[in-house]
Amino acid sequence: MNNEYKLTKFVQAAGCAAKMGPGDLKQALCNLESKSEQILVGFDTSDDAGIYQLNEDLALVQTVDFITPVVDDPYIYGQIAAANSLSDVFAMGADVKTALNVVGFDGANVSKEALGEILRGGNDKIKECGGSLLGGHTIQTPEMYYGLSVTGIINPKKIIRNNSAKIGDILILTKPLGMGILTTAIKRDLIPLNLIKHCADIMASLNYIPSNIMKKYKVSSCTDITGFGLLGHAFECINEDISFSINSSDVPFVKEAFELCKDGVIPGGSKRNIKFIEDKSSFFNIDETLKAILCDAQTSGGLLLAIDKNDAKEFLKEIEDYSFGYAKIIGEVIPKDKEDLLIY
C-alpha cells in the first residue's frame, strides 16, 4: 500500500468531518416536504436511497455520499469512498447505472496526481458493478473529501425496504464491525500495515454480489451499515410490529478493534451512536467495549438483511467468498417487545 501522500494526516489536522447523528438528522429534515405520487421512497423514511417511479416497470434509485480519507493510499481511498457511496443502491436491491464524482480538493496538501489516483480508484469500483461515470463536481476545500452521487434502476415491485422485516426472519450481517475504531487507529499510526491492508480490503469490497445473490431468496428487508453503526441502522429498520433480537456473541468484528476500543480508541461518531441508542435498546450483560463496537460508525460496512429462516444458511454459503469469511447469522426478527432492540 502506497503511504506516500499521508492523506489521513490532513484529516486529523483539519478535524475529521463527522456524520450527523440520527437524531440530529431527523430533526433537520422534519420541516421539509416533497410530495408526488411518483415518489415511492423519500426522505421522510430512513431508507438507504430515494426511489422515483418512471413507469409501471421502472424506477430511479438515487443517493449521494462522501467521506474524508480513511487510508493514506489515494487509489484505495477512492475505492473505499466509491464502495461506500454505491452501497445504498445495493441495499435497496437495485442496479447501479451512472455516477457523478463529488470532490472537495485540498490543493494545499494533496497533489493533482493524488487526486487523479482517487478518481481512478472510484471509477474502477463504478465499472466493477456495471455502472458508468458521467462526470462530477470539484471544489477547493480545506479538507479532502470524495464520494459519488449514484443513480440506479429497479422494478417498483421488487424494492427491498429497510423496515419491512417479517417476524420469524433471520438477521444476517455480511461484513465485520470495527472499521470506525480501526480507521481512527490508522490516523493515529497505531496499527501495522498488514492490518491496515486487511481493513482496506474489507471497506473497498462492494456489496454488489451479495446484493445480487440475495435477490434469489426470500429477503424481507435490507440496509447497509455505515455511519450510525449496527444498532443505529438496526433501529431504523424497526416498524410498529417488530423488534430485533441480536446475539452479540455472533456479531462479527475485526478482533483487533476490541483491544483498541478498550484502550479508548473510539471515534466521535461512535460515541454519539451509543448515546442515541441507549433508551431504544435493552442490553443484557453487554460490557461497554462490546457496546461501543456494536455502535461503531462504519465506512462501507456490510448489509444487514432479514431473510426467511429456510434460506439463511444457503445464502451464507453463497456469499462466503465475498465476505472474507465474516458473514454470520446475528439474530432474528421477533414480535414487538417493550424495546425495539434486544441485545444479548
TrEMBL record:
Q: Name one GO cellular component term.
A: cytoplasm
Please give the SUPFAM superfamilies that the UniProt record associates with this protein: PurM C-terminal domain-like, PurM N-terminal domain-like
Q: For ATP, which residues are the binding ones?
A: K19, T45, S46, D47, D65, D88, G136, H137, T138
A Pfam family it matches: AIRS
Catalytic activity, reaction form: hydrogenselenide + ATP + H2O = selenophosphate + AMP + phosphate + 2 H(+)
Q: Could you say which residues bind Mg(2+) here? A: D48, D88, D224
Q: Where is this site: Important for catalytic activity?
A: K19
InterPro entries xrefs? PurM-like_C_dom (IPR010918), PurM-like_C_sf (IPR036676), PurM-like_N (IPR016188), PurM-like_N_sf (IPR036921), SelD_I (IPR023061), SPS/SelD (IPR004536)
Q: What does the UniProt cofactor note say?
A: Binds 1 Mg(2+) ion per monomer.
The signal peptide annotation in the UniProt record is none
Q: Which keywords does the record carry?
A: ATP-binding, Kinase, Magnesium, Metal-binding, Nucleotide-binding, Selenium, Transferase
Q: Which residues form the PurM-like C-terminal domain?
A: 166-340
The record places domain PurM-like N-terminal at: 47-154
Family designation: Belongs to the selenophosphate synthase 1 family. Class I subfamily.
What is this protein's record name?
Selenide, water dikinase
Q: Which organism is it from?
A: Arcobacter porcinus
Output the lineage of the source organism: Bacteria, Pseudomonadati, Campylobacterota, Epsilonproteobacteria, Campylobacterales
